[in-house]
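Re: weekly structure request thread

Next one in the queue (369 aa):
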Amino acid sequence: MAQPYNQTKALWAITRASFKAIFAQPTAIVFSLFFPIIFILIFGAFGNGKGVSYHIALDRESDTSNHLYQAIKNHPLIKIDEYKDTAIMNDDLDKGRLTGIITIKQITDSSGVPKYSIYTRTTHASDNTNEAFRHELEFVKLRFEAQMAGNKQEFVRLEQPSFSQGKKFRQIDFVLPGQLGFSILFSTLFGIAFTFFTLREQLVLKRFYASPVRRINILLGIGTSRLFFQLINVVVLVLFGHFFLNFTLVHGGLTVFELVALTIIMLFLLMGVGLIFSSVAKTDTSIPLLINLFGFPQMLLSGTFFPITVFPKWLQQLCNILPLTQFNNATRKISFEGLHLTDLWKEIGIMGIWIVGIYFILSRVIKWE
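Done, posted below.
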């Protein structure tokens, strides 16, 4: 009596062979591991960069019935966020989501002419924007005084900002999550798309299909090997950033574990995209074009190298529906802000919608021969 075909052994054999094939290609290691490390070193060496827009809040004691408030409100680079809950406002300040909380006070001197003092409360979590924001307030002050008296009298006084500890922000806390996304985006797409296309063109998949191995095990074997390889890269990059560049891991090992879990979700999404490209491509030369059409807009619009707040509002709305934006945002919230996966229902939900759509398309276009 013939014994049933062992699907588990077949799955393990495919996974092991595919994993070995990855390391047989030196370019895979260079592009997915060493290039991101180079980018991290270059961008991390910039130190505390200066932002291009500044989110602030107003203290409840602020006088908002004057022209100085309007001048600050109308400044194109200063965004005033409104809060109903003071605790939430202070929490956002501690986490660096706000550059500062300002208080505008009107003072009338003996001449009866109203003058103003601006007090700023901030934290070290906003060290990357504090100095530049101070310069913008100076600009508002000078422009306001020029309109009032042609710079002949001081109407506004900028008090020295008061600092609380908050969380120490380093440029690496922004750069490294973006490089994680950059690394897994292109290396996964290129790896999956070219591997599956080559296997199909060389009739390897057709031979697999003729064997007792289930189709799902073929996909799982190829995908699992790529997933393991990328997870190794993620752990190496995170630990390299933490021990050599002081990348923040709020909860230590738990944060690393949650970053790995989040990466698995993103890898599953990208694996579907790579399989779609390998199925619709007529030749191997068209695969890079498809990958770049999908990848480069995300690389530029998903907060990989700079915040999406530099873009106009309408473009930010487009940025916020991209899966890489959600991955980058979630990674920064886990590593720097200390949030957990259970707090990231919005980011994971949007990625989940992409996964459903991608695999629905894949089920319609996938080719085995």
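Residues 45-51 have pLDDT under 50 and may be disordered. Strands lie at 54-58, 78-80, 100-108, 114-123, 156-158, 162-164.
Next request, please.
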